[in-house]
Amino acid sequence: MYLQATILLQPVRTVAVLDERILSGVSAEALDLSLAGKQFISTQRHGKRLFLRLQDDLWLTLHLGLTGSLFYLPARVVEADVVEVVPSHTRLLISFQNDCRLAFDDPRIFGEVGLTKSPSIFLAERKIGPDALQLNLDGFLEIMHGRRGAIKAMLLNQSLVAGLGNLYADESLFQAGICPRSRSLGEKELMALFSSIQEVLKTALSTGANLANLPDSYLLPHRHAAGTCPRDGSQLKHEKIGGRTSYYCPKHQKIVG
DNA sequence: CCACATGTTCATTT
DNA sequence: AAAATGAACATGTG
What we know:
Helix content: 25-40%
Order of helices and strands: HEHEEEEEEEEEHHHHHEE
Strand content: 15-25%
Distance between the termini: 40 Å
Strand order of the largest sheet: 1-8-9-5
Radius of gyration: 21 Å
């Protein structure tokens, strides 16, 4: 993983909070105090959340929100000065003792940075459900069983299953051939959906979450107003479901339930 | 200028 | 009361 290859085992020098609005439950001073002199020893992902372990009972939590990115900045030394160039919307800047830095860039500030004693405590507090890729079929069926809302809205609900956002929820439904407005899916549809989710997320991770690298047979490369279904050529439809825009193929994504 | 956007949370309604 | 629904948040882009 990106972070593991870059920032592990390197002592932190300072933490600069450039915009306090990304902080959650911790002050800029406390954050700097907690991190200075420590090093990150491991990383963990759960859904869309990242946890960076500092020591046994202290973890940095990160969420990239809608528009957040992490940039590892190697030290650039020119004539004895460290060059100061960071991404334009950097909200948090962690400087390491080797002059490398980690910038958290987030134009829209929906991202979040905090501290916790453990990922499990944090996840319980926020009522975050099991990670989609750690869940097995039986767990998925149990969670989804008996719910009445639109399946798209359920996939977006992180307290049921964590890790699917608007795009990958659309993609999973597309591949399972299920209309996002469907309610009360039967076991057969839920099984197909579960396997599509696993497939989609694994593919997404293998491409480094880079949408441009997804196969053309996926919905996402065609997910725009004029797009057509890569499977049958139909004009894609889009509408708001669960508060977010959903794209789907009206021909092969049937309404169930 | 207006509509809209890869996410989460909180208030309101069913 | 649990589940469902919709608005709000902040800023950039078409």
